[in-house]
Amino acid sequence: MGPRGTGGWAGRAGAPAPGRTCLLPLLLCAALRSLRASPGSEVNLLDSRTVMGDLGWIAYPKNGWEEIGEVDENYAPIHTYQVCKVMEQNQNNWLLTSWISNEGASRIFIELKFTLRDCNSLPGGLGTCKETFNMYYFESDDEDGRNIKENQYIKIDTIAADESFTELDLGDRVMKLNTEVRDVGPLTKKGFYLAFQDVGACIALVSVRVYYKKCPSVIRNLARFPDTITGADSSQLLEVSGVCINHSVTEEAPKMHCSAEGEWLVPIGKCLCKAGYEEKNNTCQAPSPVSTVKKGKITKNSISLSWQEPDRPNGIILEYEIKYFEKDQETSYTIIKSKETTITADGLKPGSAYVFQIRARTAAGYGGFSRRFEFETSPVLAASSDQSQIPIIVVSVTVGVILLAVVIGFLLSGRRCGYSKAKQDPEEEKMHFHNGHIKLPGVRTYVDPHTYEDPNQAVHEFAKEIEASCITIERVIGAGEFGEVCSGRLKLQGKREFPVAIKTLKVGYTEKQRRDFLGEASIMGQFDHPNIIHLEGVVTKSKPVMIVTEYMENGSLDTFLKKNDGQFTVIQLVGMLRGIASGMKYLSDMGYVHRDLAARNILINSNLVCKVSDFGLSRVLEDDPEAAYTTRGGKIPIRWTAPEAIAFRKFTSASDVWSYGIVMWEVMSYGERPYWEMTNQDVIKAVEEGYRLPSPMDCPAALYQLMLDCWQKDRNSRPKFDEIVSMLDKLIRNPSSLKTLVNASSRVSNLLVEHSPVGSGAYRSVGEWLEAIKMGRYTEIFMENGYSSMDAVAQVTLEDLRRLGVTLVGHQKKIMNSLQEMKVQLVNGMVPL
Ligand code: AMP
């Protein structure tokens, strides 16, 4: 019973097919042309507009829905079904689609475009006329399910029009095309049928598009993430593992989360280019080998060499490695490291040929070795037959050997930035010297630029000099302490131009200002992490002096959140917090204490990736407008700073954790000012007395709990940044854990929340005991898991605590110690459990 339309493909675009009721406005074809194409993350399973031949849909009864033949300006058919039995009683007209494969998707979306006539415009039809129709589906593994009964279809929804049209609209040729989207899932079979039921409306179903959503394949943090079909549940986040791209290796297992909307959220972990390769436009390519090596002074025991930087350094060259050996003696070789493009290899045999190879190292690792260059030492003077010379030669050789040993010892002591030795020990080969200290691979530590006698040396150690001509300044985007901050573009040789932020040093600066300004670059240049603002380089050889960093389209986080109040999902906010925590973990691992962590010092880019910034040397003391003088004379951003740092300048990663808790509060409250308009003095007093910020509105309880953990008075009880990162990861993996919000009645909107000191004595309930040891957050979990009496609690083991989700070691200790104490007291007959 193929539902061929009464008119067939009769008309040209816009021409009504003969013999049918005109329901469609005449401008329909024009409007259809402008229908939105499906976005990249939506995959069509069916789009009735693009099917060239028969759709194969079935109308039942035959005189219900009818297909009307329209073609567009390219004579392509427009499949439109209409029904308009508004004057007749008891209508039950079904339109059944053909079988649609779901291609493995378990949630599908149906977008309907239709017009619906206003019953008021139909004189006489009011009694029977309807303004809705129903949509159904039936799942089936194959096309055999087609003949099932109507009552086996499952209803998706009743569809009503936002806009119905009247005769008048038609006369004016006003187009009122409705678009409605519904979703269905989880689907368990291979495909399904859709059905549209009319019960007496005047409808033209213009198009039906069925699609699923996917997170399209991307490369992020050097890992490739595959096309991923979204989950069955509309709030589900699928954790997807990435695969490191060619020439890169895993640093931290790369993962992202595919949301039900087809967006990639919360990137975690990353890959790094392998040694010898550098990251460039989401790929890894190695620095090119040194191509030209020239010999310099040659004596009978030494050869001096010089060479040119590789044609494509692909980064800042940190040092060169020179490998040499006596020709045909390759198994016994010597390695020298040099920051210069010249070396002298001494202690060589006279009149012997030596083979040299050189390679460059950038932050990404070593490039390939150059080709082999062969040079010969000068021959010894003609040997004397006078045997009396022999002792002199022996003495000379001995002295030479001793001197050589001294030189090698000197080099190995690290006073020069290089070392030389025969036969490489694979461990030692990775060792390098930095500022007089031996540094082991993998244990990178932050070097305070203050330790350099000459601060310019620090800048050039850690920052690349950029020629001013490579920079185009476009506009001023902010005001820094030392001058304007601009956006612009950087064009480096062999690289595509890309957007950057440029901090300038204002004219008339003092030497100290210049030093402090460039100090930030010396610090920033030591960091390499996706959540730390990346330094491109500095301009110091011309004026104005500039610091060039990656450009963060959305500027500082506090302003951005204020501007977009209430616009993000909790997962997006947690993603931002996760990024900041990950950046801070990196800084604390490097031994760097930030001291001014606040949302105003976080920058956010167009992908909502947050990066920690603001690494000024004397910044905390001088340039932060939030910083206030303390009684001890220091200038400190009071609202963000831990009590011990305010009271006795104890700045540590644990005080950064306190500030991180405040940043969490700022983020969850979309840039609200911590402690509102309270004075700094009142804030210090309140915090000292045990009061804490209340939960922001609509804040998941787990996040507020984390804030409170960060604000523990005892800095050792605060979580570490790695614990914070894992905790946020856990919440992201399990978004339902974010659904429990802080109880509105327990939120105190404009008062601080009291955190009373640990209590003691006998406890009447588990809740009272947990509250007293400040572990009240676990009361519910204890109760739910059967630990509802102190008797039951007395049996709790460490393993039980872990199972209950008490993962913080500090909390486990607190609970176990308190239990232990109570048991001892019980033994002594003091406290009845
Ligand atoms: P700062 O001196 O680092 O506090 O920068 C002053 C202001 O300039 C910031 O608040 C931002 O609005 C803007 N800004 C600084 N660095 C960048 C950047 N890398 N990308 C975009 N905006 C920036």
UniProtKB/TrEMBL annotation:
GO BP annotations, alphabetical order: axon guidance
CDD domains listed in its UniProt record: EphR_LBD_A5, FN3, PTKc_EphR_A, SAM_EPH-A5
This enzyme's EC code(s): 2.7.10.1
Domain Eph LBD: 42-220
Topology within the bilayer: Single-pass type I membrane protein
Cited InterPro entries: Eph_TM, EphA5_rcpt_lig-bd, Ephrin_rcpt_lig-bd_dom, Ephrin_rcpt_TKs, FN3_dom, FN3_sf, Galactose-bd-like_sf, Ig-like_fold
Disulfide bond among keywords: no
Protein kinase domain residues: 471-732
Major localization listed first in the record, in broad terms: membrane
Domain SAM: 761-825
Keywords: ATP-binding, Cell membrane, Glycoprotein, Kinase, Membrane, Neurogenesis, Nucleotide-binding, Phosphoprotein, Receptor, Signal, Transferase, Transmembrane, Transmembrane helix, Tyrosine-protein kinase
Lineage: superkingdom: Eukaryota
UniProt GO molecular function: ATP binding; transmembrane-ephrin receptor activity
Domain Fibronectin type-III: 286-380
Residues the record lists as binding ATP: 503
Compartment annotation: Cell membrane
Signal peptide start-end: 1-37
Transmembrane segments: 390-413
Record's GO cellular component terms: dendrite; plasma membrane
Protein name per its UniProtKB record: receptor protein-tyrosine kinase
